[in-house]
Structures are given as structure tokens and as C-alpha cells.
Amino acid sequence: MSGPQPVTVDGAVLSADDVEKATETLVATLADADEAGWYGALEVERPWSSHNPRLDGEFARAGAIHRYLCRELASLLVLGARITARASRPQPPFDDPAFFAALDEDRVDIRAKKLFLFSPERMALSIDRIGHYTGTPAAAFQRHVLFTNYAMHVEAFLERFPDADRPAREGTQMPAYHHRTEAGDGVSLVNIGVGPANAKTATDHIAVLRPDTMIMIGHCGGLRNHQQKGDFVLATGYQRADHVLDEVLPLDVPVVPNHRLNTFLLDALAAAGRPYRLGIVHTTDNRDWEFNQQAALRAMRLSRSVAVDMESATIATNGFRYRVPHATLLCVSDKPLHGSPKLAAGAQEFYEASKRHHLDLALTALESVRREHPEGLPGQEIRAVDEPLFGGPPDL
Length: 396
Known about the structure:
Elements: E1 7-10, H1 19-35, E2 38-45, E3 54-59, H2 66-79, E4 82-90, H3 97-101, H4 120-134, E5 144-148, H5 151-160, E6 176-179, E7 187-191, H6 196-206, E8 213-216, E9 219-222, E10 232-241, H7 259-272, E11 276-284, H8 293-303, E12 305-309, H9 312-321, E13 326-334, H10 344-372
Parallel strand pairs: 5-7, 5-8, 8-13, 9-13, 10-11, 11-12
Antiparallel strand pairs: 1-4, 2-3, 2-4, 6-7, 9-12, 10-13
Helix pairs in contact: 1-2, 4-6, 5-10, 6-9, 7-10
């Protein structure tokens, strides 16, 4: 068994008109390696860099991140990089003990700058699990991903995009729906259900696809007197009481939404004339926190939280960890502190009144992202000092 022949492209002698074709050739070589049962590899030579002149990295299932790879490689070729794509090594099966060991994200060589954030084993497993959990192939995902915790947003999405891709089977744990565009800058919606565990699982794997944005558009409990059911909450920060990521990202690490994405959401709210409040969202892993109130109420009071939910901080934390610009736009469905809990009798009326407005606000903001940042939002707040080359600033 052998992989495809290596392909080398020298950006220093490449005309601007040939960049797109060259990137397609490089990514096709990685995809051919996949088909032949090999991991693909990229070697990047950057003559302008004195600290990291040569970087290399391996990839699996390159076709699932085709657009992202083309974008990153094109930016390097324009700067004059010399890039080689080749087959690296045979892909181990999922049940190989060495495969399991290679999934560990904490195994980092801090002496060397990475080319990509994930190992090929991590990529392969996540892309397989995306199909399992969402019922749709990873390649169907678009550059913008919305997360919801209610089926009503799925209904609104399918009303808006009746030709959207849907899960291939019934009973999918976190069904996904995709409004595809030729440029791949459409919108994917994932119904993660209720709770931080699913929120973590979904974003653990979808992060491998390198989306441009992740936005949570769920429901929340309003914590302030003047909020009404149907009002919106735009998160400016999070109080992390979800616990599912505490071991990998300590609570003293600040997590904030992307400023530009929040600005676009704020513009959409203002243009639509929708009532909203900015502030901290308290995310809990306890659906019935009201039964043991004192600790939760103290935390909400100290943090000045304006809303409580079960998913937003989890998605934001993984957005921070995996360098994906993220934001949260919630809709108040109940006011647990003010004698207005969420009860079955009034729930359906609220859902019907809010679902289209909520989705429209998110889609309006994403249209602004496409128009003003076609190559992706700047994300300085999620960049690390040892940032991988792909997704990082070009001069490191």
C-alpha cells in the first residue's frame, strides 16, 4: 500500500491567478492520501520567519475541512511560502491502543510550534462522531454554526430553509441541519438538547471543522425585575457553574464572547426593535437549582448575572479553548425569581411567538459577518502565545 506522490508548490514563483488552483491541488493530495488509507501531511517552509521557518503537521479526513485548508494555504502561498503535501503514515484503526494514546490533547511539545491544533487521530475520531451524533456528514457543516436547546428553532430553520440537509436517520442524539451555499458560508443548526454535557460533546467535535462562528440561540431564565418573557439577553460574559470543563480550563481563566460578533448581534437587536439586556449568563449543570437555592443565588448576585441557562458557558468555553469566535443570544422563557416559572400551559404560545424572531436575529448578524469579514472574524481574545500556524497571525 502506498500513498499519492508528494506535491510541492512554491508561492515565491506563483502568480496570483494560480493560487486557488495550487491550494486545491495540495488539499486534493491530502484527500487522496485519506482514500489510500494514509494520513496526509503538510510541510510549510516560511523564509520570512526566523523563529519557525519550517513547520509540518498531519491531517485526517482533509475533505471535511477542505475550505478551511484552502483558505489557510492560500494566505501562506501569497506570502511566499513553499508547501509540500504528501502521504505521512498508514492510518491506524480506531481500536489500536496507539490510536487511543494519540487522542490526548495534553501531550504537547512546547519546544515546537504546531501547524494545526489537532492530531490526525483526534480529527478522524471527531469527524466519525459528528456523523454519529448529528446524523449528517461532517462535510455538510457550514462555516457558521448555531446551537439550540429546543426543537422550535429547528422548525423555524426548516421553514426558512426548506431545502436544508437533514439527518439521515430518526432518533439522532443531536440532529443537525445545514443550509448550504456554494462558498460553504451557509449556516448549520445543531439541536444539542438541554444540558452542558451535550454542549461539550458537540463543540468538542465540531471545533475540528474550524467553523468561523459558533452562536448559542437557546432559552434562559431571566433574573431581573424588568425583564419580560420574550426579551433577549446578549451575553457579555459567563459564570461557569456547568463544571464539565473545569479540569481542562480552570475557572480563573476569563471567557468572553467575540466583540465583533456581539456587535453584529447588538446591531440586529437594535434594527429589529427587540427588547434586550446585556450581561453575565450563569450556566448551571443543575436543571432544578431552585430546589437548593442559596449557593446558586449567591453566585448569581455576586456575578451580577442577568440570565441562567445550562449550555451557554460550555459552548463559550470550548470556543475559547479551540479558538472559534463565539457568542450567545438567549431569549427569556421564564423568570424563576419573580413568580413566573416555565410551565407547560403557557410554553407553546411563547415558543411560537419567539422562534422566528430569535433565528432571524442570528441570521442577520451572520450576514454582517459575511459582508464585513469574508475570511473570518478576528479573534485576538482566543489566540495563544504558542498559537498553531493555521488560524494564527502570519508573522509568527
